[in-house]
Amino acid sequence: xxxxxxxxxxxxxxGGVRLRTHPRARRRLWRTLRRGSGVFNIAFLAVMxxxxxxxxxxxxxxxxxxxxxxxxxxxxxxxxxxxxxLLGTDQLGRDVFARLVxxxxxxxxxxxxxxxxxxxxxxxxxxxxxxxxxxxxxxxMRIADIQLAFPFILLAIAIVAVLGVGLVNVILILGxxxxxxxxxxxxxxxxxxxxxxYIEAARALGAHEIGVMGRHIVPNLLTPVIVLATSLVAxxxxxxxxxxxxxxxxxxxxxxxxxxxxxxRDYLNVAWWMSVFPGLALTLTVxxxxxxxxxxxxxxxxxxxxx
Length: 307
Known about the structure:
By secondary structure, this protein is mainly α. It is 64% helix and 3% strand.
């Protein structure tokens, strides 16, 4: 049976992805990291992940506990501020910094879990649609076309309005609704890959179709799927915050950035910190994830491997 050729010297295979460990590849990795602030992007995301994991250690405050005697305190560097509340408090006396830190948990959970669901579901459907080009593949792609006819955010709003708010509902809705992007990507890749010589050789030697897809086709899909997944993480974080801002996302009592922005609408003139800090956190997170996706695309692009 034909198989993927063994890795050459200086190459490590991890989950079907060939990672170049040759000194020349490491030098190019460092160059691509420096070009486009890759080091800063990775460091920022690492800090965000640590904040989400170590939230109870970083801040002693309960993000949902209110204390009306301390409501609308400004950040510590302004008159009336206190170092006990570094970024001030909101209209209910809740610590803004604590809500920011705990809110990163929801953003990361929603962004990563929804993309994981979409990637697995969409890639599986795309592989089947690309490998079997008959009525089955055509029917699956027509379903994808119908879904793409509706704007993604409007489709999510319509489904959430029917099923109700909640973190689990948001994750399932965004995860299932996003399969179409991975499905179309996987189908296009499979249509190209299955025409190659080693696929034909595997078939000629009697390899089962499931074995051909699992052993020869799926590993070659990992690179474009990883790049697409990185870009969609940022998009889903924004969609979750948008739905929550409109009252259709996570529960109002959860300390999410969307809830913080929604609660600050009536206090823009008297407590600007309630909206500025969650908005800044959301902007930096989305920008960093998008830039990291651009770096992954540049580094994993086969056309640039010899540069």
